[in-house]
Amino acid sequence: MLRGFYTAASGMIAQQRTQEALSNNIANANTPGYKADQTSLKAFPEMLMQQMGGKTIPTSNSFNLPVQNPIGPLNTGVYVQEAAPNFIQGDVRETGVSTDLALVNGTLPDEAGALLFSVQNAEGDVRYTRNGNFTVDGQGFLVTNQGYYVLDQAGNTIQTNGMEFTVTEDGLVQTEAGESVLGISYTDDANGLAKEGNGLYNGDADAVPADATYSIQQGFLEQSNVDSLQSMTRMMESYRLFETNQRVLRAYDESMGKAVSEIGRLT
């Protein structure tokens, strides 16, 4: 019976973590470039239940031979194995703002691959983002809305000297002071990237391979790829499953209470 407690409790914990991921997705449904987290559940290893017994051998000493009769497998609950971002392209919306850049996927060599903007966080480390909602700071550098520098292909900051600049479809940033190529990075395993908040990802990414294609659209933004209706439906489903496990746990608790009080009183 105690195993039933752990199985029901593990189901509640798994659904709670699923709810947290779905809630975060819905909260960022309007965040440009946001990639929805997808949780995957995995069962704990199964246990083979066996009945312990014995068989008496008809000998002069009545030898007792231990016997195990298989009953069947027992599942021991589930857990959230991972919460990986879904890098499917979001809708592209026109904003008319020159600092807004949308990274539109073309052909990628790997289904699990992803293209990202390269930026520099507050500690000076290279991070990646799909949020092209950029702006220009007081010194004329192209930055994210959180103040992180947008990098060029060489890993340097981009000086635009104001809002008047042009970005071509292949990522060439043209200003009065000169030209630079927007830093676009590629990873063949987007699931290996870790979210750091503020739309930033940490992980391994390299230069864009020759067989990958993309385009930069200035004055456009990639929207979040969260399906709000589907997320709400999944939240309701997860909540119902949580309630079901809660009722099972309550039933086990009541049965245990009766076993302690009534059986104890009879003995």
From TrEMBL:
Residue stretches making up the Flagellar basal body rod protein N-terminal domain: 5-35
GO CC, one annotated term: bacterial-type flagellum basal body
PROSITE patterns documented for this protein: FLAGELLA_BB_ROD
Domain Flagellar basal-body/hook protein C-terminal: 217-260
Keywords carried by this UniProt record: Bacterial flagellum
Record-annotated Flagellar hook protein FlgE/F/G-like D1 domain positions: 116-174
Record's protein name: Distal rod protein
